[in-house]
Amino acid sequence: MDKKPITPEGQQRLRTELDQLKNVKRQEIIDAISEARAHGDLKENAEYHAAREEQGLNEARIRELEDVLGTSQVVEYKQMGVEDRVIFGSTVTIKDIENDEIKKYQIVGDAEADIENNTISFTTPMARALLKKELGEFIEVHTPGGDKEFEIINIELN
Asked: How many helices (H) and strands (E) does the chain have?
């Protein structure tokens, strides 16, 4: 099976979340279930059912994180010495040619991509268009709203 790339920072974030879910949240849920059981009749006990549902969601997230961490390979992008072109892990600042809007994205693995944190998966059309390009180059990205053109105005390895 192919290993999926992940940044060292992304791997650390996922390991921290996994540790929190296994060692803190799991116990909190067990305590909540025990407390709800003490309240008597389980059929009509909303707290018990809510705690059991939360337990299922927590265990599912634990399995998901263990799977992601087990199938990922850390890419030490900072040690590659590549600063003149976009690589996995790069943070790229681009300017929309049409409206001069500036956007900044870090290119990361699927499991750590989160558009709200300006991280995009290397498999997205934007990231694929950016990879291997150099400072000052123009890229064209096919978006649902049509083709857009961007200029690469900064590349950094945080």
From this structure: 4, 7
